[in-house]
Amino acid sequence: MDPNLSKAIVDFFLGIPIFSRMNAEEVKLVAKHMNVIELQPGETLFEESDRGSFMCFIAHGTLDVIKQPGVGDQEITITTVRQGQSIGEMSVIEDLPRSATIKARENTKLFILSQAAFDHVLAKHAHIGIKLLKGITILLSNNLRKTSSRLADYMLPIS
User: Fold this and answer.
1) How many Cβ atoms are within 10 Å of 115's Cβ, its own excluded?
2) Are 31 and 125 within 8 A, CB to CB?
3) pTM for this prediction
């Protein structure tokens, strides 16, 4: 990504909760380690069980998060993510297979932060890496709370 980032791009990242603890200069430092990709409608970003090595920030467009419940079962769209949201955060933290398939619902532009770039920021700019890690941790914690709440809605009381 161009090190001379526009104010609009920096403002975009500052609007994403993961970056909320950073200032513009810190965001620029992280963003200069990112790449940009574009997906067409129906195009797959990654498949469930693929090895994860990057996370994405949606600049524009919409992505469906899809699970395949079992062999021969029909795909289920479990959620949709849109502009200003992120996807794949767990893959920069741990080296485990992807938990879902991600497909573009419409033309989508993504900023990609690779695991290697994430590790570089942690190693060379620890104070920024800590802020980034804390932002990811809070996002994952909030997602877990939402999932737990949804699960509780579907569970029968134990008697």
Assistant:
1) 18
2) no
3) 0.85
- Supply the CATH number for residue 16's domain: 2.60.120.10
Burial 28-39 (b: 16+ CB within 10 A, else e): bbbbebbeeeeb
Q: φ and ψ at 12, to 5 degrees?
A: -55, -50
Counting the structural domains of the chain, the total is: 1
Phi, psi of 88 (to 5 degrees): 85, 20
> How far is the CA of 64 from the CAs of 25, 40, 42, 139, in angstroms?
32, 13, 9, 18
What confidence score (pLDDT) does residue 139 get?
86
Residue 117 within a domain? yes
**Is residue 111 classed exposed, middle or buried when 0-12, 13-18 and 19+ CB atoms within 10 A define those classes?**
buried
Tokens of 30: 């992280």
* Residue pLDDT, tens place only, 113-144: 999 999 999 999 999 999 999 999 888 888 77
Please check whether residue 2 lies inside any domain of the structure.
no
Residue 128 sits in which domain range? 7-150
